[in-house]
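Newbie here. two chains, one complex. Structure please?
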Amino acid sequence: MKLTPELIIFAMLAGPAALAAVGVVAFGSAIRSALCLVFNFFLLAFLYFTLSMDMPGISQIVVYSGAIMVLFVFVIMLLNPKLIEERKDLKRPFGIAFGVVLFGILASQVLPVLGFEGAKPVVHQIGSPNVIGDALFSSYVFPFEVISILLLVGVVGSVFLAKRRTD
Amino acid sequence: MAYIGLSLFMFSTGVVGVVIRRNPIVIFMCIELMLNAVNLAFLSFARYRYATEGHSLNQAIGGPMMVIFVMAVAAAEVAVGLGIIMAIYRLKEEVDVDELNLLGG
């Protein structure tokens, strides 16, 4: 495999992203996991930019790193969860072994059919906001409306759940 | 396709986190990690397989569209899920998902 500038940039982004993903699982306290996850999401957004997917990258930063992680950190701050001591039991080596086996199975099924042929020239600029918006309001207008109903139901449900019962 | 390799690694890490952690908030974060791994796989397939010649724009746009929808569903899911976690925390002081058996009766 030739060492191209794209590969170097990918390695610089993907290595820390993988480390941060491990950190989410490995750190004991919830706030450290949350910070690792923010880091991971930012690096993923830049990985989307290297795929020339501008619009998904921007919405990754806004939606995930912005909205969702603020929600997570806010809930951690509100609840101030005590450290749940991770008991040393059979679950941990079992889970790790399960993850390794899952990775092996997925990789053995997915990677051979990919083929490692060189990158073909790109003809569609599918990452730009105007192309995505055009598709969103033409051929994908029905899922778009369904998503709007889903978000409305989510808002109502979370307000109902977070409401303090007074009676 | 190193992107797919990273995606697989992140997905497996998320699965391990869901299995071994006990804090429900951290388990939620691991679910987000898995969703993001799938998003990365969608985008890299769309870029390297379907944005090339021989495929129509309509085929190619499916990947980014799916990513947008996954993000919207994840936002709704996080709002409702954190609401449920907060309700459970209000009910019990300490929450360990292995000890929760309210639905068991």
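Moderator note: The two ends of chain A are 67 Å apart (CA to CA). Chain A has a mean pLDDT of 84. Thread marked as resolved.
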